[in-house]
Design a protein that fits this description.
Layout: E1 2-7, H1 14-22, H2 30-35, E2 42-47, E3 53-58, H3 66-73, E4 78-84, H4 91-102, E5 107-113, H5 120-131, E6 141-143, H6 152-165, E7 175-184, E8 188-197, E9 199-201, E10 205-209, E11 213-222, E12 225-227, E13 229-231, E14 234-241, E15 253-255, E16 262-271, E17 280-285, E18 288-298, E19 301-311, E20 317-322, E21 327-336, H7 347-356, H8 364-371, E22 373-375, H9 376-381, E23 396-398, E24 401-403, H10 405-425, H11 434-441, H12 449-455, E25 459-461, E26 464-466, H13 476-491, H14 499-505, H15 509-517, E27 522-525, E28 528-530, H16 534-543, E29 549-550, H17 551-558, H18 562-575, E30 578-580, E31 585-588
Parallel strand pairs: 1-3, 1-4, 4-5, 5-6
Antiparallel strand pairs: 2-3, 7-8, 7-15, 8-14, 9-13, 10-11, 10-15, 11-12, 11-14, 16-19, 16-21, 17-18, 17-20, 18-19, 20-21, 22-24, 23-24, 25-26, 27-28, 29-31, 30-31
The structure holds guanosine-5'-triphosphate and magnesium ion.
Guanosine-5'-triphosphate is lined by residues 8, 10-16, 36-38, 60-62, 113-114, 116-117, 145-147.
Length: 593
């Protein structure tokens, strides 16, 4: 199936032409037929002389109903642009063209209607001129009259050629923009819309936006015929289980679960914008119209904050309209649906520069390089990567993340440093827990620590991350006791535990001897053990005393007892850094390092 939207000024003959082409009535409402004017979207379809069906979404031309018009053309990629021969280019011709250009619609046919009322030549020339410089420049033009039938066969052929040349819909997840919802007796809620990408089948579970509710497809109709499944592009009526009619309306979307994230903030490239935009605008994309707050970041970059979350992908096109002034102020391309916060001075300017360098459809490697690391599923919901795609070359894939190789190397180095520092401070338990390692090394997710340990030549096992050679291994209770002792000595370096303390800790002479051998403790004298760093600290403190100094002055400087101070001074004497002058006094022989 192909779907073509109409466009053009009010009363220029859009609905009449759709009626002539399809034999169906696009103006569904009695009021529309009474007033001879389209108010809401109309739907009709036909075969253009081949096996395929072409459906038309007929839009209103009146300025008052432009929101309906935008909901109709939003999900559609081809247009039948109608200009009346007897009136020529008008205000809504221009507004519709601006919308189509902003939405990047590039496929269309120009139908100059009512050519029985005036020579179509001038209107064609004028329209061609206006289309120049837009995505619709150079589209074929056909003069028609719905009254005499002139040109209808040519128009049909031209439309068929147009549909044949339409690119296949880009492969992607299912997303159906709802344009109507109603209730059918016996079936419940039915929504209709254009399925612009993906496939929908009976029994599928879909997510309804913006509510986020899961709904199940109970039945499907395409052009009034029951179907089991439908591929894009399709006009579809979807019967939904477990949803009341007031829970869904135009602008909502049914999407494949897991394929989109609810976007409420995004950075966009503005197309054809005025220098300054009003801060409050309406965003139109698909069939949705959502209030947005605009923050300009640079001449053609802005951050949009959406009042209602939308299921959007990077690279999509939409437009901004000023509902007060009643005109389209800019088109935009979505560049980033997970934009970074702008907190510091100059952030906005830097962001604008970064956005200016981005492509509308970035590659996975570009996105990963830009972010350093990103969850794989975040790139899927951003529309940069398809669920089934292989991980691209030049990107590290680990633990559900895609990581820039430079960042990966930096993390491995930081992990090595963190492990070394930990092991130096905790020689008895040199393994650091993955969480702590990730925190210290600035690694985004502790689940990456295993892979990074391997990268850095480290080991992750039950004992945490550590180097390959961890020296002496103590039984766990001894290690815990020694850790406790070291921790206390760390806080009070000269408060060597006494015999009772050591017994309570369960540390025997053998354990303490092994700890000395392992370089964890030093033995000052029988029963007095300190950290290897204690002598240097002891020296620093006595160096601050007036020389010579006494045992009791040293004891006070070290905040310890004579039991420790006396042998520690003898230890320092032995090292030759202090010297005894007489029974009571000593002096420093070397400046401490
Ligand atoms: N003479 C003549 N009249 C036409 C032709 N096409 C449409 N009309 C008339 O033009 C008027 C408007 O036609 P519509 O088809 O309702 O125009 P529209 O573009 O759908 O208008 P809106 O939906 O309100 O924007 C009607 O009175 C039609 O009968 C044509 O080819 N020749
Ligand atoms: Mg109409």
């Amino acid at each position: 199936m192909f779907v073509i939207a109409t466009a053009g000024h009010v009363d220029h003959g859009k609905s009449t032409l759709v009626r002539a082409l399809t034999g169906m009535e696009p103006d569904r409402w009695a009021e529309e037929r009474r007033r001879g004017m389209t108010i809401d979207l109309g739907f009709a379809w036909t075969s253009l002389g081949d096996d395929e069906t072409t459906a038309f979404v007929d839009v209103p031309g009146h300025q008052r109903f432009v929101t309906n018009m935008l909901a109709g053309v939003g999900p559609v990629t081809a247009v039948m642009f109608v200009v009346a021969a007897d009136e020529g280019w008008r205000r809504q011709s221009a507004e519709h063209l601006a919308a189509l250009h902003a939405l990047d619609v590039r496929h269309g046919v120009l139908a100059v209607t009512r050519s029985d009322l005036a020579d179509p030549g001038p209107a064609i020339a004028q329209a061609r001129e206006r289309l120049d410089g837009t995505g619709l420049a150079g589209i074929p033009a056909v003069a028609v009259s719905a009254v005499t039938g002139r040109g209808l066969a040519t128009l049909r052929d031209t439309l068929r050629d147009l549909t044949r040349a339409l690119p296949a819909p880009a492969p992607g997840p299912a997303r159906l923009w709802v344009d109507r919802s109603f209730s059918v007796r016996g079936s419940g809620t039915v929504v209709t819309g254009t399925l612009a990408s993906g496939t929908v089948a009976v029994g599928d579970e879909l997510l309804l936006y913006p509510s986020g509710r899961t709904v199940q497809v109970r039945g499907l109709q395409s052009l009034k015929a029951d179907v089991d499944r439908a591929d894009a592009v399709s006009r579809l009526a979807v019967n939904l289980r477990g949803l009341s009619t007031d829970e869904v309306r135009r602008g909502h979307a049914l999407v494949q679960p897991g394929a989109f994230a609810p976007v409420t903030s995004m950075d966009v490239r503005l197309v054809r914008a005025a220098d300054r935009l009003p801060a409050q605008l309406t965003l139109h994309l698909g069939s949705a119209a959502v209030a947005v707050r605009v923050r300009m970041l640079g001449p053609s970059a802005a951050r949009l904050t959406l009042a209602t979350p939308l299921p959007l992908h990077v690279g999509e096109r939409g437009l901004l309209r000023d509902p007060g002034a009643q005109h389209i102020v800019a088109g935009f391309a979505v560049l980033d649906t997970m934009p970074p916060g702008l907190h510091a001075r100059g952030d906005a300017r830097r962001r604008a520069t970064a956005l200016a360098g981005m492509r509308d459809r970035p590659t996975v490697a570009e996105e990963v390089a830009r972010r350093g690391a990103v969850r794989r599923e975040a790139l899927v919901t951003a529309g940069v990567l398809a669920t089934g795609d292989a991980d691209p070359d030049g990107v590290v894939a680990a633990g559900g993340w895609l990581i820039d190789p430079v960042v990966w190397k930096q993390w491995a180095m930081a992990l090595h440093r963190a492990v070394d520092e930990w092991a130096a401070a905790n020689p008895l338990s040199p393994g650091i827990a993955p969480d702590a390692a990730a925190r210290r090394a600035g690694i985004i997710d502790a689940r990456l620590v295993g892979a990074l340990a391997a990268e850095a030549g480290l080991v992750l096992d039950g004992g945490g991350v550590h180097g390959r050679d961890t020296g002496i291994r103590f039984p766990a209770p001894v290690r815990r006791a020694l850790d406790e002792m070291c921790a206390r000595l760390h806080d009070a370096p000269f408060a060597a535990p006494g015999a009772e303390d050591l017994a309570r800790l369960g540390l025997s002479r053998q354990h303490l001897a092994a700890a000395v051998t392992a370089g964890v403790l030093i033995r000052v004298t029988d029963g007095v053990y300190l950290l290897p760093s204690a002598p240097a600290e002891a020296l620093r403190r006595v160096a601050a005393l007036r020389q010579p100094f006494t045992v009791s002055q040293a004891r006070a400087a070290w905040d310890t007892s004579r039991r420790v101070a006396v042998p520690l001074l003898e230890h320092l004497d032995q090292q030759g850094v202090t010297r005894r002058l007489d029974t009571a006094r000593r002096i420093l022989t070397k400046e401490p390092r």
